[in-house]
């Protein structure tokens, strides 16, 4: 399931709240002086990872493989993966969200979301492997809530209630996804029960929402340390100007209150 960027509508005032796919995008927005700010991180970990055939037992064994990378991946996780495992830029080939090239060649690995492409791959090739980047230290959050700075200033109480309700919704969804799944299927008939069940199982198994800092501090929490880790990775990879005021990209004022 993909989350589209609503950075431009936020910038020009078409909406007051949105989900944006990556904290990386928010930091790039700050670099361009966009008046936006992240207010919560429902996904503590990015669901992005690599799908491989069963001869690959770890990310360290990707050398020599053709790796299918999307355009957005080229500007996010690929520079991190390439640097961490000393991969060659020439290994990357375009990923067009078609799994046939992967299934047709044992020498191909491809990007995948833990909650979607992995389901398709396991049906076609049960022995395939999936490696979540977060497990190897990729610092980015997954889907985060973002709004404009003027909205934070004008309606902090509304945003506080909005964040609390959203995080409570995630908590309830993980506990019993039936109502949420019914709404998802109504909006997108292509989503079936098996895929939705798999996605929920992956969220729970990999602690995408309630793991990390959320385990002790509550769903949606963001920390300075995580944002700095993402900032440092981006600067080192040449994705972000080192002078960018990274602390302007987020606020922790809506973090869950410890009970």
TrEMBL record:
<protein>
    <submittedName>
        <fullName>ABC transporter substrate-binding protein</fullName>
    </submittedName>
</protein>
<dbReference type="GO" id="GO:0009228">
    <property type="term" value="P:thiamine biosynthetic process"/>
</dbReference>
<feature type="domain" description="SsuA/THI5-like">
    <location>
        <begin position="21"/>
        <end position="178"/>
    </location>
</feature>
<dbReference type="Pfam" id="PF09084">
    <property type="entry name" value="NMT1"/>
</dbReference>
<dbReference type="InterPro" id="IPR015168">
    <property type="entry name" value="SsuA/THI5"/>
</dbReference>
<dbReference type="InterPro" id="IPR027939">
    <property type="entry name" value="NMT1/THI5"/>
</dbReference>
């Amino acid at each position: 399931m993909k989350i589209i960027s609503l950075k431009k509508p936020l910038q020009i005032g078409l909406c007051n709240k949105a989900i944006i796919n990556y904290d990386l995008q928010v930091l790039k927005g700050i670099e361009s002086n966009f008046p936006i700010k992240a207010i919560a991180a429902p996904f503590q970990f990015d669901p992005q990872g690599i799908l491989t055939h069963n001869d690959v037992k770890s990310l360290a064994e990707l050398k020599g493989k053709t790796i299918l990378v999307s355009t957005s991946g080229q500007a996010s996780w690929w520079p991190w993966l390439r640097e961490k495992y000393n991969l060659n830029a020439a290994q990357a080939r375009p990923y067009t969200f078609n799994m046939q090239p992967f299934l047709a060649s044992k020498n191909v690995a491809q990007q995948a979301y833990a909650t979607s492409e992995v389901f398709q791959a396991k049906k076609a090739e049960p022995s395939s492997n999936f490696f979540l980047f977060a497990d190897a230290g990729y610092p980015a959050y997954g889907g985060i809530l973002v709004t404009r700075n003027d909205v934070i200033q004008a309606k902090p109480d509304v945003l506080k209630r909005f964040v609390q309700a959203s995080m409570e919704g995630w908590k309830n969804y993980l506990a019993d996804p039936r109502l949420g799944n019914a709404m998802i299927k109504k909006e997108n008939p292509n989503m079936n029960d098996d895929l939705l069940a798999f996605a929920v199982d992956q969220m729970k198994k990999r602690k995408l929402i309630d793991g990390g800092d959320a385990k002790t501090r509550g769903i949606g929490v963001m920390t300075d340390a995580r944002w700095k880790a993402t900032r440092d990775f981006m600067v080192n990879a040449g994705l972000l100007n080192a002078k960018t005021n990274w602390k302007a990209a987020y606020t922790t004022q809506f973090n869950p209150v410890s009970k």
